[in-house]
Amino acid sequence: QVQLVESGGGLVQAGGSLRLSCAASGRTFSNYxxxxxxxxxxxxxxxxxxxxxxDGANTYYADSVKGRFTISRDNAKxxxxxxxxxxxxxxxxxxxxxxxxxxTSAASAAVGFDSWGQGTQVTVSS
Length: 126
Fold this sequence. Notes:
Layout: E1 3-7, E2 10-13, E3 18-25, E4 32-39, E5 46-51, E6 59-61, E7 69-74, E8 79-84, E9 93-101, E10 115-116, E11 120-125
Parallel strand pairs: 2-11
Antiparallel strand pairs: 1-3, 3-8, 4-5, 4-9, 5-6, 7-8, 9-10, 9-11
């Protein structure tokens, strides 16, 4: 498995932006598809975005964040990012980075992740 550490969470006003980072170690980063998930209090964890292995040419998003969030990766830095713009109070949650070995696709973007970070809190005030 790969070890993951998230950073970049915080408190922001509605309409603002944040960029989350997830640093990976322990394995060849480019061999892993990466994802972001979130969990709000009292709710189940939900898929946010995923990016394919290798050069990350393919990305996938939950409908709730499409057009506002962008996932990207820098294999030289072993890091995946989540740029979050036009934030809404309903985006408030703990955000988790996740990894799975190999490719992902539109059909499998939200499943199969077996390495997880500890999470970073994002709070959006109205």
